[in-house]
Task: inverse folding
């Protein structure tokens, strides 16, 4: 026996340590160096699943039923196999839509239904109270076993240490669970403390296990061997052992299924796994760390149970405190105290997380809707964040006190395990609505409501009421059926017997639940809001960032801002709007309340007061257009198109950018062209103007001088008009507005005509012209005038550049494949290699300035443009010193058709 | 003593008009058909004034102007830039190169002669 004062001091010391860990976790979170951002801590925090029920109850159950304690842990292990699929989806959905509790999750899925949220909350509270009572009972029983004191339930309540334990736990939950109104309801300090508790209880349990197995016995083999020697204990090691007539697969399956569901649906599990999840990727590792944890904490369950039975010879309720009494009986007081602290940590962890989770649900889904409906809060302005926190604090206290009340009133009726299973069966009712809602688009609110109500009524009737009846609160004859109707006997409904009461209840309640859920969903029709939420939930991974927003209507940004301010506080509301403005690239004061902004505000508020209440509040400040199912489909369609648009937009942007670059360079070309044209225009103008002025100002000018000047003026005028004509000509051809008179053309005749036009030029300088023309050439389709222009240009260019007196120009006409080629070769200086590339550009005149023959620098560009327009090419063949040869080709393909 | 004036321009007809005008005013006229020859002539026998065309093959007027201004021995040479381009950037560049005056083509011979007289006063 240990002195009560000592036990109390140790308990208190442990709680202080817990506070320190939590405070440290919160401080680290504040510094941005999260303590819980690790898959190990995340997995340890899931260990909250192992409550005092595990710690004490498993051994009790093992002492009674052998391996029957196992399904409670096999279920979660099996569930973890699916964690990556199911849990990750839950986490993603909760993250995306700011869901902070299981009630919120289910209500949000079915059209943000306040009724569903309230119903789930009610079921949770009713179902979870016995469970909390169980924790208190475990701690209380542990304390008695340790101190050898009397049953405390006989004491007056104000002298009951369990009450003060409950109160101090409420204090802890208030401090670390409702310190501030977090938008995502995450509590880093609390999670750190829970992970710490998981480590403590595992260590304590393993210490006791090792002490019993290797200290009191010579290892596991020794224990098994000794157990086999005692027939009543040996039975425990068989599946068809003590207390079970023949192996009952149905029961085994029922228990496994039950715990499989509870590990996801229990409020504290949802809180730890979903709400407190820092990083989705942690799930992957936690999904095998957690089963490993369960394995470790279960390894010594049977050895301790059997060891206890062998040593203490007592297989009754006393087995539940073997972890304490075994060390104590061997004088290992310190180990007993450690074991007690382990049990305490299991109980406190469960109570803290459960009450925080339940208080969020009570506040958001029971109290707030009532307050908001009362009108007073809906209308009044002002910051409500403090009020929300106070409601939650009150809810935590209330839940714990109710749990304590249940413990005082009904705690003695049942063993720990049975109480726990009642709670398990209650939360299992959420499974069809929750899991179905994540994968079945067709599930409706009516189905969820029907299933939940039906399932939980059956649960209450077949499991809850009988437990109450056993406590003597209603007549025990109720168990044989109300009003003597035996087919309604709560534990043999419609004559179904042969199952234990849990399997029986689970069978009927889930049957009714699923039947109503599926049946009503199939019969009824989902509203637009249900359908849209269904899509958001089921397809949460499908759309990435381009989530559709199901909202149409009008709202004023000021109203939204005021609304956000009330539930988030002014600073957070300000930040929310600022972020939105930045992300949409709008100024803060010119934000419009479009669907995205409304949706954003609603989600943020949902983090504070739950999705259902948030929906009501947003509705109250905006004129919404009711959505039809067609609208929902349309919005989905738009959203998927948005992604296509985004990709197309990106491509279009690239194209536009390229086009813009091209335009810019074209613009630059045009500028250069204009600049060149004006330069070319100014030069002759300058001469004309200067010479004219000079003649005017010099009346006594010599007549020879005057004639020279007039001659220059005339030739410069001709140059000007030539330039203007050619610029206009080129502009027309380039713009594609030039007129083309295409006809069948005899190239030989054209060459002859061009030679006649340039004969004077050649004769003047004594240039010899040679012709190399075939006998017959095919006709080509072309504009004869334009083609003559090209030939004249090439010939006059040649005439200009050949040396005077010994010039020689050769014209070659030949057929090459399906082209007709014309070459004009001269014996001039040729084109320097550096100039060959630019010779066809505008205003690039050959020769140096002084010796350059008159020209506009537009002849070749125009010629080439003409040839290109006729479907041919023009090019230069030249080596310096060997003269130049300008050539062009025209396609012959039109010839066959014209013949 | 008559002032020597160099005409640096690649357009023969403009050279004709400018030299007629300068001779009529009594100046001694030299002609350079491109920038390089102009710079050679300025260096070998510095004139009082250069009428410098901005756009010439070989070495353009701005470069000639800068080269002259960079030579302390040629500080007495006045430079009047002539260009067909009247854009602001060209004027700025001409001034930056150190020209004493800037006249755009087509110019008035009457105004040009006034500017020349001012520069040589």
Result:
């Amino acid at each position: 026996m240990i002195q009560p004062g000592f036990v109390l001091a140790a308990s208190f010391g442990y709680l202080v340590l817990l506070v320190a860990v939590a405070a440290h976790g919160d401080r680290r979170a504040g510094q941005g160096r999260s303590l819980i951002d690790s898959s190990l801590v995340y997995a340890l925090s899931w260990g909250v699943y192992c409550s005092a029920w595990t710690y004490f109850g498993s051994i009790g159950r093992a002492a009674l039923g052998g391996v029957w304690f196992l399904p409670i842990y096999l279920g979660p292990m099996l569930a973890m196999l699916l964690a990556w699929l199911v849990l990750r989806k839950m986490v993603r959905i909760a993250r995306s839509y700011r869901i902070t509790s299981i009630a919120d999750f289910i209500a949000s899925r079915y059209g943000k239904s306040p009724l569903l949220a309230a119903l789930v909350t009610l079921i949770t509270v009713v179902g979870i109270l016995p469970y909390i009572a169980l924790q208190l009972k475990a701690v209380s029983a542990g304390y008695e076993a340790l101190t050898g004191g009397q049953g405390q339930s006989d004491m007056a309540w104000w002298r009951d240490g369990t009450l003060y334990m409950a109160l101090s736990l409420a204090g802890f939950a208030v401090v670390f669970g409702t310190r501030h109104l977090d938008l995502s309801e995450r509590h880093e300090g609390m999670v750190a403390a829970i992970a710490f508790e998981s480590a403590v209880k595992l260590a304590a349990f393993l210490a006791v296990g090792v002490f019993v197995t290797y200290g009191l016995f010579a290892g596991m083999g020794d224990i098994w061997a000794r157990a086999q020697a005692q027939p009543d204990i040996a039975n425990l090691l068989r599946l068809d052992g003590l207390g079970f007539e023949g192996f009952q697969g149905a029961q085994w399956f029922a228990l496994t299924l039950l715990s499989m569901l509870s590990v996801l649906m229990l409020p504290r599990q949802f809180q730890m796994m979903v709400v407190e999840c820092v990083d989705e990727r942690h799930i992957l590792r936690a999904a095998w760390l957690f089963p490993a944890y369960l394995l470790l904490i279960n390894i010594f369950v049977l050895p301790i149970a059997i060891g206890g039975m062998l040593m203490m010879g007592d297989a009754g309720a006393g087995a539940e405190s073997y972890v304490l009494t075994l060390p104590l009986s061997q004088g290992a007081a310190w180990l007993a105290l450690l074991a007690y602290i382990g049990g305490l940590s299991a109980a406190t962890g469960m109570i803290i997380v459960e009450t925080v989770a339940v208080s969020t649900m009570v506040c958001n889904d029971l109290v707030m809707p009532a307050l908001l409906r009362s009108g007073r809060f809906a209308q009044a302005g002002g910051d409500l964040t403090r009020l929300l926190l106070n409601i939650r604090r009150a809810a935590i206290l209330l839940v714990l006190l109710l749990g304590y009340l249940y413990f005082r009133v009904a705690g003695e009726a049942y063993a720990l395990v049975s109480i726990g299973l009642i709670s398990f069966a209650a939360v299992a009712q959420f499974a069809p609505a929750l899991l179905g809602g994540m994968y079945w688009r067709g599930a409706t609110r009516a189905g969820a409501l029907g299933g939940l109500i039906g399932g939980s009524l059956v649960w209450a009737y077949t499991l809850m009421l009988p437990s109450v009846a056993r406590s003597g609160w209603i007549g025990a004859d109720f168990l044989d059926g109300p009003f003597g109707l035996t087919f309604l006997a709560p534990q043999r409904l419609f004559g179904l017997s042969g199952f234990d009461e849990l399997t029986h209840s689970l069978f009927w309640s889930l049957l009714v639940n699923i039947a109503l859920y599926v049946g009503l969903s199939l019969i009824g029709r989902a509203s637009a809001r249900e359908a849209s939420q269904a899509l958001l939930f089921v397809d949460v991974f499908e759309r990435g960032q381009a989530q559709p927003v199901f909202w149409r209507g009008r709202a004023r940004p000021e109203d939204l801002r005021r609304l956000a301010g009330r539930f988030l506080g002014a600073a957070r509301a300000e930040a929310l709007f600022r972020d939105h403005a930045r992300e949409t690239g709008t100024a803060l004061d010119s934000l419009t309340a479009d669907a995205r902004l409304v949706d954003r505000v609603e989600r943020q508020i949902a983090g504070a007061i739950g999705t259902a209440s948030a929906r009501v509040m947003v509705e109250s400040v905006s004129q919404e257009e009711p959505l039809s199912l067609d609208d929902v489909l349309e919005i989905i369609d738009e959203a998927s198109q948005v992604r296509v648009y985004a990709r197309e937009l990106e491509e279009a942007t690239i194209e536009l950018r390229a086009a813009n670059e091209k335009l810019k360079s074209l613009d630059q070309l045009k500028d250069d062209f204009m600049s060149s044209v004006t330069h070319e225009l100014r030069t002759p103008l300058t001469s004309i103007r200067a010479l004219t002025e000079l003649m005017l100002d010099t009346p006594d000018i010599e007549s020879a001088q005057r004639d020279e000047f007039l001659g220059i003026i005339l030739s410069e005028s001709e140059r000007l008009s030539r330039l203007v004509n050619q610029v206009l000509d080129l502009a027309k051809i380039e713009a594609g507005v030039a007129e083309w008179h295409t006809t069948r053309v005899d190239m030989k005749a054209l060459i002859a005509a061009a030679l006649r036009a340039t004969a004077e030029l050649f004769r003047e300088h004594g240039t010899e012209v040679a012709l190399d023309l075939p006998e017959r050439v095919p006709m080509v389709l072309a504009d004869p005038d334009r083609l003559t222009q090209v030939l004249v240009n090439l010939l006059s260019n040649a005439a200009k550049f050949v040396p005077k007196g010994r010039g020689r120009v050769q014209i070659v006409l030949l057929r090459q494949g399906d082209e007709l080629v014309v070459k004009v070769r001269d014996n001039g200086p040729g084109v320097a290699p550096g100039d060959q590339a630019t010779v066809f550009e505008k205003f690039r005149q050959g020769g140096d300035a002084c010796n350059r023959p008159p020209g506009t620098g537009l002849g070749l560009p125009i010629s080439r443009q003409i040839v290109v327009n006729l479907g041919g090419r023009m090019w230069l063949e030249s080596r310096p010193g060997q003269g130049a040869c300008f050539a062009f080709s025209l396609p012959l393909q039109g010839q066959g058709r014209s013949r | 003593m008559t002032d020597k004036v160099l005409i640096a321009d690649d357009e023969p007809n403009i050279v004709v008009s400018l030299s007629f005008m300068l001779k009529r005013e009594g100046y001694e006229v030299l002609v350079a058909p491109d920038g390089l020859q102009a710079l050679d002539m300025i260096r070998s026998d510095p004139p009082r004034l250069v009428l410098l065309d901005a756009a010439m093959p070989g070495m353009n007027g701005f470069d000639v102007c800068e080269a002259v201004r960079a030579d302390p021995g040629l500080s007495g040479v006045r430079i009047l830039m002539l260009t067909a381009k009247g854009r602001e950037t060209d004027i700025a560049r001409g001034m930056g190169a150190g020209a004493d005056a800037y006249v755009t083509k087509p110019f008035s011979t009457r105004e040009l002669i006034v500017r020349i007289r001012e520069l040589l006063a």
